[in-house]
Amino acid sequence: MSLWRLEWMRLTRTKRWIALLGVYLFFGLLGPLTARYLGEILDVAGGDLEGATIVLPPPVPADGMAQYVGNALQIGTLVAVVVAAGALAFDAIPEMGIFLRTRVSDVRVLLTPRFVVTVGAVVGSFVLGGLAAWYETWALIGGLDAGDVAGGLLLGSLFLVFVVALVAAVAGRAASVLGTVMISILVLLVMPIFGVADAIGRWLPSHLGGALAAIPAGTESFADYLPATAVTLVATVALLYLAVRFASSREL
Amino acid sequence: MIETTGLTKRYGSTEALKGVDLRVEHGSTYGLVGPNGAGKTTLLGILAGLRHPTAGSIAIDADRSRIAVLPDTPRFDPWLTGREVAELAQRLTTGADDRVEDVLADAGLADAMDRAVGGYSRGMLQRLGVACTIVGEPSLVLLDEPASALDPLGRREVLDLIGRLKGSATILFSSHILADVQEVCDTVGILDHGDLVFQGSVEALLVGRAVPRYRVRVRPPSDPVARALEQQDWVQDVARSGADELSVTVSSVDDAESKLAGALAAAGARVVSIGPEAVTLEQAFLEVTQ
Is A96 part of the contact surface with chain B (CB cutoff 8 Å)? Predict the structure, then answer.
């Protein structure tokens, strides 16, 4: 039994992988379906509203990815934060923290497998959901350029790495799993508010989350995300540094 | 093995430890006793590296990887089995997992080792905690009230496990159950409101604090015997406990040994039994801390 296997078992035995993969795959399959049949769905639901008729433009392939990103960015990120907090807030129950901390010489030995395995699970689920959305978009609406989708998936994955690093840093200070979740979500909610101003928004990590929709749609190019990519990389490294520092200085 | 000098810990304006000079000899079993809030957990936490002292120094003659810590209520991920928890404990300390089955069997968990610990009772968790503590063959074991919340049977089992550790490791064992300390430990330290008010062997504590007192059982009536003893100038006090038992406090053991039997005979007492009254750790503890 190693700390790496412990984290793998945390994902599998607690069924957290099902929550992660389930939510991303669900939205990956639902997004293109919704984009393709939104008009029909509205008709069935009563599209004639007091004489006004909603007329939707014919769906285009980029709509499939946009629907996926919209849902994955919100619900998916929320689930990712909860799963990450469950793994990274290892002092939330002090007796469990004591068991681990008194058996390793450096807190990085504990943090590394938790961070890496969580990132792997979150990013893997996001990518699988994205690939499902890409395939279904091709099947229902039309094909999307593979390079654009890959670029969007890469940038979206980088955003999720940042999210897990944020949770790791917050877990070093918060007293509980719930506290870690709440503070992390608060930070993630505040970020897009600053991002309303485009001059600022294009530098923020949250900007990367929309890349999988915007790049295949042609509204932005991969190069447009370079400022946010640079900031996200720097912020992720800084957050990981803080996570180690906070966890090292914490008293139980 | 462990030596602290002027160890101080403050939480805001509260001084949890006030210049503690602890000395735990190599191979000893040291009982750290004190009422709730005395600072026992803080002291153990600092020695375990889980808390940082505000002032003072610590010298521990043991490699950090060979120091094992058991909190008062050990908890583990509930979806792991007992075997997996012990494997993790040994793997993290020695890099192997060859002692897991033996240690779990010693802890009485042979039949439960493949069950998820989420279904373990409090006593089983405590025994698993002790098993995880000893599986890495530590040279220093820090135990924080390991039996305080257990029923008598669970307490017995945990004390037996600790007893088996004696000789193979130095043990620092905090408790407010004085009988446990008296049974398991050879050295005792009394911590009271952050002060280490006594440190030494259990015998030194008991003898040093003992007022010479003898318990005398006589055939009733005991009142005339008590009155006769009270008139002796070397008798300080005679307390009656029951119809036939007297607790006689004397000025010295010599006086009692040379004069008590004669005084009882002169009083016409029909003596059933006579002997020195044992001072319990609890009495000594109360005397030191009050």
Answer: yes
The gap from C-alpha A201 to its chain's centroid, in whole angstroms, comes to 18
Q: Is the domain B210-280 a CATH 3.30.70.100 member? A: yes
Q: What is the CATH number of domain B2-207?
A: 3.40.50.300
Q: Which member of B49, B79, B93 has the closest CB to residue A13?
A: B79
Give the domain ranges of chain A.
3-249
Measured between beta carbons, the chain B residues lying within 8 angstroms of A1 are 84, 87-88, 91, 97
Tokens of B197: 């008010």
Residue B130: closest CA among chain A residues belongs to which residue?
A: A99
Measured between beta carbons, which residues in chain A are less than 8 angstroms from residue B80? 6, 9
Q: pLDDT truncated to tens, each residue of chain B (290 aa)?
A: 899 999 999 998 899 999 999 999 998 999 998 888 889 999 999 999 999 999 999 999 888 888 999 998 899 999 999 999 999 999 998 888 889 999 999 888 999 999 999 999 988 998 899 899 989 889 999 999 888 777 788 788 778 878 888 878 899 989 887 778 888 888 999 998 999 988 988 877 776 565 778 889 999 888 899 999 999 999 988 988 777 899 898 888 788 888 999 999 999 999 999 888 766 777 777 777 77
Q: Is A54 on the interface with B (CB under 8 A)?
A: no
Where does residue A48 rank: exposed (0-12), middle (13-18), buried (19+ CB within 10 A)?
A: exposed
Instruction: Please tell me whether the overall predicted TM-score, pTM, comes out greater than 0.90 for this model.
Output: no
Which of A201, A214, A79, A199 is closest to A155 using CA atoms? A214
Name the residue type at position B271: V
Tell me how close the Cα of A9 comes to any Cα of chain B, in angstroms.
8
B136 has a chain A CB within 8 A of its CB: yes
In chain B, what are the domain boundaries?
2-207, 210-280
Nearest to B79 among A14, A101, A105 (CB): A14
Where b means 16+ CB within 10 Å and e means fewer, B185-196 reads bebbbbbbebbb
**Chain A nearest-CA residue for B144:** A95
Q: Which helix (H) or strand (E) covers residue B158, if one does?
A: helix B152-165
Compute the count of residue pairs across chains A and B with CB atoms less than 8 Å apart. Answer: 62
